[in-house]
Amino acid sequence: IVALIYLGRLKSNLPSKSRGEFDTPYKMFIAAVILASKFVEDSNKIAQSIYRFVAPLYNHKEINEMERSFLGVVKYDLFVNLVEVCQFVKEHKDTLELEF
Fold first, then answer.
1. End-to-end alpha-carbon separation of the chain, Å?
2. I want to staple 62 with a disulfide (CB 3.0 to 4.6 A). Which of 20, 44, 58, 72 is the partner?
3. What predicted TM-score, i.e. pTM, was given to this entire model?
C-alpha cells in the first residue's frame, strides 16, 4: 500500500507532459516497492530480494539510479501516516478487492 501511495505522489509531482522510455513505469514501480520496503521495514532484506529478482533486467547501478530519480521527483517525501493508508484503502478497496 505504501508503494502505491508513493506512486500517487510521483504522479502528482510529474509535469503533465512527462514522457519516459517504454520501461519507465516498471522502473518507477520497482523503485517505489524498494523505497517502501526500506522505509517501512528499515531493513535491506526485502530490497536485496528485489535486487536479485530484477537482476536479469537491471543491475545495481540502474536500480540505485531509479531510486534516486524517484526520490528527487517526490522530494524525499516518504513518510506515510496511518490516516493516509486508511484513506487509500477506502478509496481503492474495490480495485484492491478488499472486503470490510
1. 16
2. 58
3. 0.88
